[in-house]
Amino acid sequence: MYEEIIKATEDFDSTYCIGKGVHGSVYRVNLSSANLVAVKKLHQLWDGETNLQKEFLNEVRALTEIRHRSIVKLYGFCAHKRSMLL
Hints:
The chain is an alpha+beta fold. The chain has two helices and five strands.
């Protein structure tokens, strides 16, 4: 799935970016399964790896535990040395 997201966004080209926030950018991704999803790529601008991992885990917890009509459903996540995706 990681490779498909990279290919569908042309390695996270800015033309696919639909929003930016303090902790990451959100991209519109058309998957080969004809599903349209939003993928958030966390920025790696932190002073330490521990802070980035903590922020990533907090987002995963929030998206899996909170149920609200304004919060999207979390389908998965990827924690990789090069990038962290929701």
